[in-house]
Amino acid sequence: MVNIQDLHKKFGKNHVLKGVDLSIVNGGIFAVLGPNGSGKTTLIKSILGMVIPNKGTIEVLGKNINKSSEYKYQIDYLPQIANFPNNLKVKELIKMIKDLRGKTDLDQSLIALFKLEPFLDKKLGNLSGGTKQKVNIVLTFMFDSPIIILDEPTTGLDPISLIRLKDLIQAEKIKGKTILITSHIMSFVEEVSDEIVFLLEGQIYFKGSISNLKSKTNQPDFEHAIASILQENYA
Amino acid sequence: MPLLPFYKKIMLKILKYSFYDLMRSRWSYVYFAFYLLLGIVLLFLNNNLSKAVITLMNVIIVLVPLIGTIFGVMYYYNSKEFTELLLAQPLKRSSIFLGQYLGVAISLSLSLILGLGIPFVFYGLFKSNAIWDFSLLLITESFLTFIFTALAFNIALSQVNKIKGFGFAILLWLFLAIIYDGLFLMSLILFEEYPLDKLSLVGTLLNPIDLSRTLILLKLDISALLGYTGAIFKKFFGTNFGLIISFVTLIIWVVLPVTRIIFKAKKKDF
Fold it and tell me: Which of A59, A80, A163, B145 has the highest Cβ tally under 10 A?
């Protein structure tokens, strides 16, 4: 599905990615974890073609993404901070994205699922953070693509919406999709993810299941396993 | 589906959304209302179409580039979120940025053309022989809008820091609208022993503001004001050849920065 080789990215003097190799072959839910500034968002934005790497190759569904935009039809992306054009109404934004990307009918059921009907005629600038995030989720899931990338999907969501999001993610997984998630909420990661990709200082430090991580670090629970990696490297 | 028309279609869609977005913002109305008022006041004070066109030219020749510069920079920085939303979609970067650029440039030109056009048409423009002068004024000013919006987009694309971006954009305007003329005049005085007509011709061609001003002044037939150089200018710009060269230069002034927008947009990290 996604194949990354020797990926390097510098922002000025800041060497963010230092040779990332990552191969995701099957469907499933992969959590990309790491401390602040470890390069999670840069890695994701590289896959999306928003950040242009200095070195290395990225293949999505067997094709090199270099200088292409067509492959993005295969990816649904939920950006980290839901900042939308403030002058637009929710309805207009959804219509615009459909106009640019292609027809879909999934938006109706997603709007119903997240109870967004009362907000459709409101301007995005007037929405609360959580409601914006729900709109963000609708925009992401309405295209039914084989790869889904979620950057901090839980931000601002209330408990009911969080449960709906988890159900949605599971439903997509059953369809055989590849789902990449970044999150700082460890309980959420532990609950949803099949595999962990742990980034540390621009390289992949660990890739495997949560139980592997626990045995590698000799810790009884997930949160402490992560904490022990960080302590080893920073303390 | 053939590829080229597909990208063009996407670009036109983005143009449409940028255009609607701008048409909804009150700044477009302020800009439009300003020109409307300016046109009415000038016609009221001058009581003569030709004279009004000259006064109008003197006012807007520096104002139009300034507005294009400020609007261009402001729109780019303000639509950062919109741009990032589009970047994650399967769209070509060049069509995203060209669409936005054309959206800004076209809506500004439209405010200008409608704002000035309406009072002049009501005053009886179509029955007067000032119509060609007035049309030339609108065409060159639209060119200036396209040129300075493109330059502003270039600066904003290269400069992440908003304040610095604004600063550079204003400096660029200041240079082309005022400082360039000063340097130009100083060099003419400094080298007055040498034959300068070719140099001053080239100097005028290289600055789009000076070029537009010269084109309009010569059309309005007040080249006598410019003395000996004026006669040479008249000889050059007055001919069809000179007119073609002038418009080709203006087109190059649009094409070069637009090419750099495409080039820069392809390499930028978001």
Answer: B145
- C-alpha distance from B87 to closest chain A C-alpha (Å): 6
Angle at B216 between CA B212 and CA B217, to 5 degrees: 115
Residues of A at the B interface (Cβ-Cβ below 8 Å)? 11, 45, 48-52, 67, 69-73, 77, 79, 83-85, 87-88, 96-97, 99-101
Contacting residues of A for B88, CB less than 8 Å apart: 48, 50, 72, 77, 79
Domain extents for chain B? 3-267
DSSP B160: -
Give start and end residues of each alpha helix (H) in chain B.
3-24, 26-46, 49-78, 80-87, 93-122, 131-158, 162-174, 180-190, 197-206, 208-219, 227-237, 240-267
Which residue from B minimizes the CA distance to A72? B90
Under DSSP, the state recorded for B128 is S
Cα B83 to Cα B190: distance, rounded to the nearest angstrom = 49
Single-letter amino acid, residue B230: G
Report the residue from B85, B89, B266 with minimal CB separation from A84. Answer: B85
CB contact under 8 A, B84 and A70: no
Across the strands, what pairs with A63?
A60
Q: Tell me the CA distances in angstroms from B157 to B7, B80, B83, B153, one per residue in order.
A: 21, 11, 12, 6
pLDDT in tens, chain A (235 residues): 888 888 899 888 888 888 888 888 888 899 998 888 888 888 999 998 889 888 888 888 888 888 788 888 889 999 876 677 777 889 988 998 898 888 888 889 999 999 999 999 998 888 888 899 999 999 999 998 999 999 989 888 899 999 999 999 999 999 989 999 998 888 888 888 989 998 888 888 888 888 888 888 888 888 888 888 888 776 5
- Residues in chain B within 8 Å Cβ distance of A67: 266
CATH number assigned to the domain covering A2-234: 3.40.50.300
> Could you report the predicted ipTM of this complex, rounded to two decimals?
0.83
User: A180 pairs with which residues across the strands?
Assistant: A30, A149
* A145 neighbourhood in chain B, CB within 8 Å: none
Per DSSP, the three-state class of A152 is coil
